[in-house]
Every structure is written in structure tokens, then in C-alpha cells.
Amino acid sequence: MHFHKYEKIWLIFGISSLIIFLTIIGVSAFSFGNHPSGGVHSIDPEKVSVTPPFDKPGLSKIDDNTYQAAIVAEAFGYQPAKLTVPVGKKVIFKVTSKDVTHSFSIVNTNVNMMVIPGQINTKEYIFTEPGNYLVLCNEYCGTGHQFMKTEIEVVEQ
Known about the structure:
By secondary structure, this protein is an alpha+beta fold. The protein is built from one helix and eleven strands. The strands form two sheets. Strands 1, 2, 3, 4, 6 and 9 form a six-stranded mixed β-sheet that branches. Strand 7 and strand 8 (about 110-115) form a beta hairpin.
């Protein structure tokens, strides 16, 4: 089969670009620890309110440097409505949904999870600066979606 000179150039350019792109994605995924958040554990969406730790949403202390935040997303709000966490401590966010697909995105951080009914998503984060952090839902979840937000207050101990 005969290829014209310009066809060969474009084929080499296209295949090289593809190899470079896939290499960058592979290095990013494995070297920098990028991976999908949680979703490995499942829960019955109809029994969220009686299943630990979601039966008592809020912050619980695991040890001196680690806290767990159990959060339930439901139509147009999060439980608990407000969360207070200490600065410089690891917070493990465990989030699930009772009703429809939501998201849990803390503005100006790398915490961004899709919250699907029946799945428990987990993400760890350490807040380095005190202040108020806004949590938004980025998945359209119904007519009151624009009101779905909460706030995390990060305080000095």
C-alpha cells in the first residue's frame, strides 16, 4: 500500500499525539495518586437513616489527628446542615444519598464526589487554613437544586 508523503506526516503526527496524550494520562493517574473516589461500599438507600454512621450524621473523632464526617445528601440539603472541623486534622468524609444523585463539592479544595443512592463515597482531606468552606451540589437534583448547599467551618483548636 502506498501513502503519499503528507499522509505519512499526518499519520505520524496523529499517532504520536495519541501516544503522548495516553502517556500523560497514565503518568497523572499513577504517579500523582489520582483515582476515582470511593463508591466501593454500598448501602440500602431506604435504610440510610438507621445504618451507622449515617444514623447520626455529623463529625466524630477517631483519634487525636483523625475525624470522620458522616454526611447524608437528600433533596435540597445535606445532613448535618453545618459542620465544624479542626484545622490541620485529617477529615474522612463519608457521604451517601437517600433519594437521587447529588454531588458533594467543597469549593477551593480537591474534594468533589458524586453521591449516588446506594453507594458510600469516601474522601480524605486536611484543611490547612481556618475559615468557612462552602459545599455545593453540582448535579441537578430537582427544582430546589439551587438551594442545596452547606458550610464547613474550620476552626483553630
